[in-house]
Amino acid sequence: MNKVVVGLSGGVDSSVAAATLHHQGYEVIGLTLWLMKGKGQCCSDGMVDAARLCEELNIPHHIVDSRDVFQENIVDYLVNGYEAGITPLPCSQCNRAVKFSPMLDYARKELSTDKIATGHYARIRYDQVGDRYQLLKAVDRHKDQSYFLYDLTQELLAGSIFPLGNQTKEETRRVASEFGLSTADKPESQDLCLIEAHGSMQTFLDRYIDQKEGDIVDMAGNILGKHTGIHHYTIGQRRGLGIAASHPLYVVKLDAVMNRVIVGDRHAGGRLSCTVSRMNWVSIAEPSSPIQAEVKIRYRSQPVSAQIIPLGNSRSKIMFDEHQFGVTPGQAAVLYNGEMVLGGGIIEVDS
């Protein structure tokens, strides 16, 4: 019998992943990572719901205390980033450093298996010609989470199973009901776990970063207003600036050194290029010359055409075919060729 360790958050997606594999004849072991210190929905109610699911399926349930790992790789990462005037993307960092790598390591060392599964909406395909695992978009494009998985390594892809990749969210709900799972009607999480636990990203950040008043200025340096901390703002933001103007203004730059929020019109916020660091070429080997690809600069953004120029040292230059608004340092630029994720990295410099 094939043994697989399923990461359980207590939500319907991971529950159906576990139930599906159990129904298919796998020896399923549930694993929940205790991530957040203090009270948090994903780590209090979630652990209870995950334990209940394992009782329903009559499978073992393990809980691993990962709070220190989460604090170092996510909380500190976010706080340091916002203090530096960037807008970090925690989910891709969390998937590789906090979830997939530790889960696979635990599965191998403690449970004698080299297979893990999650409730992510994405697919994995093995390319025999290239001798490489490929990360693909999910069939349900509205739920596709491949954007957040670009940083997975070949080793992690080889050891992972995504049971939900070929079905829609509606089908997942239906399967949960058919299996009679207690999580079948559980509301879907809408925000990052940190936001769910603290109410908002601003509330979370204010626990760690002192509010330091500074100036909101235009492109010429004219003072238009005051802010209560640059960590309250992000590139492309329009609402909540608290300033009056004859035309719409957007945040176009965060100056951590001068403690300034710089605003301008939409054209001022456009970029034709950006530099990306910490590149991970997930489905293909790093190209030796420029390639054309589709790029997403935010999870909800539409893919846009661009030329990718490898620079070496895990860096690339992205040259967009057209101006892009809201290119944000700290966010991920993920490269696609149709349904396949080529790779991705962290936006480092916009120019």
Can you describe what's shown?
This protein is of the alpha/beta class and 351 residues long. The longest helix has 22 residues, at 90-111. It starts with a strand and ends with a strand. The chain has helices at 12-23, 45-57, 67-83, 90-111, 154-158, 169-178, 193-198, 201-206; strands at 3-7, 27-34, 61-65, 116-117, 122-127, 132-137, 160-161, 214-217, 223-227, 250-255, 260-264, 270-281, 291-296, 304-312, 315-325, 332-337, 340-350. A hairpin with a 7-residue loop joins strand 13 and strand 14 (304-312). The model has no long low-confidence stretch (mean pLDDT 92). The chain contains eight helices and 17 strands. Helix 1 crosses helix 6 and helix 3 (67-83) packs antiparallel against helix 4. A six-stranded antiparallel beta barrel has the order 12-15-14-13-16-17. A five-stranded parallel β-sheet has the order 3-2-1-4-7. A four-stranded mixed β-sheet has the order 9-8-11-10, with no helix packed on it. It has three domains: 3-198, Rossmann fold, CATH 3.40.50.620; 211-264, Adenine nucleotide alpha hydrolases-like domains (SH3 type barrels, Roll); 270-350, Elongation Factor Tu (Ef-tu), domain 3 (Beta Barrel).
